[in-house]
């Protein structure tokens, strides 16, 4: 699991790839900040 600080250091492509791996719905229309929030929330629920 990555911290939000780790995720913040990633580019939009890397965030999108991680969102794809996690199956986050709506990711194709999300901007970088939205991807970051969705990934952070997904990491919290997985923990």
Strand runs, count:
0
The proportion of residues in beta strands is under 5%
Query: Unreliable stretches, pLDDT < 50, 5 or more residues?
Result: none
Quote the average pLDDT.
90
What would you call the shape? Answer: globular
SSE sequence, one letter per element: HHH
The helix content, as a percent range, equals: 55-70%
Terminal CA distance = 8 Å
> What is the radius of gyration?
9 Å
Structural class: mainly alpha
- Characterize the largest beta sheet: strand count, sense, and whether it forms a barrel: none
Number of helices: 3
Tally of separate domains: 1
Organism: Streptomyces pristinaespiralis (strain ATCC 25486 / DSM 40338 / CBS 914.69 / JCM 4507 / KCC S-0507 / NBRC 13074 / NRRL 2958 / 5647)
Domain Rho termination factor-like N-terminal: 6-39
Pfam families: Rho_N
Protein name: Rho termination factor-like N-terminal domain-containing protein
How does this model look, in words?
The protein has 47 residues and is mostly helical. It has one domain (4-46). It contains three helices and no strands. The chain has helices at residues 4-8, 12-22, 32-46. Helix 2 (12-22) runs parallel beside helix 3. It is globular and about 25 Å long. 11% of the residues are buried.
List keywords for this structure.
47 residues, mainly alpha, 3 helices, 0% strand
What is the fold's blueprint, element by element?
Layout: H1 4-8, H2 12-22, H3 32-46
Quick structural gist:
With 47 residues, the chain is mainly α. The chain has helices at residues 4-8, 12-22, 32-46.
């Amino acid at each position: 699991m990555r911290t939000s600080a780790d995720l913040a250091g990633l580019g939009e492509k890397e965030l999108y790839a991680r969102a794809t791996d996690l199956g986050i719905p709506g990711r194709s229309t999300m901007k970088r900040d939205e991807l970051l929030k969705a990934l952070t929330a997904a990491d919290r629920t997985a923990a």
